[in-house]
Amino acid sequence: MKNTFSFSSPLFRPILFIAVISLFAACSNLSKEIDLKLPDYERELNVEGYLLPGLPLYFLSLTETVGYFEEFDLPVINDATVIIKYGNEIDTLIPVNLAEGFVIPGITTDTIRLFLPGVNEVYLGLRFSPDNLSQQFELTIIDEKGGRQASATTRLVETIRHDSMTYDFDAKGKAFVLSYFTDPAGQRNYYRRVLKVRKPFRITGSQDSIWLSDVDQAFIFDDEASDGEQFILGTGFEFEEGDTLISYLYHIPKEYYDYLESSDGAIQANFNPFAQPTRILDNIIGGTGIFTGMALHVDTLIIGK
């Protein structure tokens, strides 16, 4: 007679029960609380400064980094010396609070209030950004109270203009939008595209409407595979007659492209326990962040007009 054994056998069930209980008992001894002594985090200066040719003012944000387990609220540094030098020109930026308002010495006595998303306290430059593409800009930040100093250099890039913007409707009356521009040949170029849509929203209980703007697209790309060609940037069929589309085409240097790409990678890695840590590629010596020149061209299209 052949001897057989089945896991479903009544004889096996008590053995299985005992084995499972023993396994859980063994696993309970595997957990142990461990106190880790983390080194004190050394805070750094965090810089965001952008130069755009032709703007009457330019802004620089200066904050302080915090540790990973600290409250995420970057402290503002508003008592540092911030200098931008280019050629023989030296511009000392002044600290202002955009929400509370400020006066530009020697230019106006009226209080000016501006809105920058997520930023209130900044350093303000009082000069037009020059459009000399060969000129190097040197940033120096001296934080005397904290005993820290940061610096960076950058250059401007030429403005790349839109060729045109077009739209078309599908059978359901929804429109898509195409934006065209031509890439300069013979050089590596980097771009950032931001597309905003302004829609009228009817106020509840009223015949009046207000206009609200939302970011529909925001991404970076380069011309490695399409040097010197015309680019076509498209959308889905998601717009309606009367919508206003505003296309922001930024021509950016490689330093800013690397900064944006690595920052996005670091954000994604932070929320993925299986991802490798990513180092943010910046150009600040003695701190973190970015100081960069760029060029912007804006084109607007009204659907159905």
CATH classification class of the largest domain? Mainly Beta
Strand order of the largest sheet: 5-6-2-1-15
CATH architectural type of the largest domain: Sandwich
Which H/E pattern describes the elements? HEEEEEEEEEEEEEEHEE
Number of domains: 2
Low-confidence stretches: none
> Can you tell me the CATH topology of the largest domain?
Immunoglobulin-like
Strand count: 16
**Level of helix content?**
10-25%
Give the distance, in angstroms, between the N- and C-terminal Cα atoms.
Answer: 92 Å
How is the biggest beta sheet arranged? Answer: 5 strands, mixed
**What is the 3D form?**
globular
Structural class assignment: mainly beta
Radius of gyration: 28 Å
Number of helices: 2
Beta-sheet strand percentage?
Answer: 35-45%
Summed over residues and divided by their number, the pLDDT gives a mean of 83
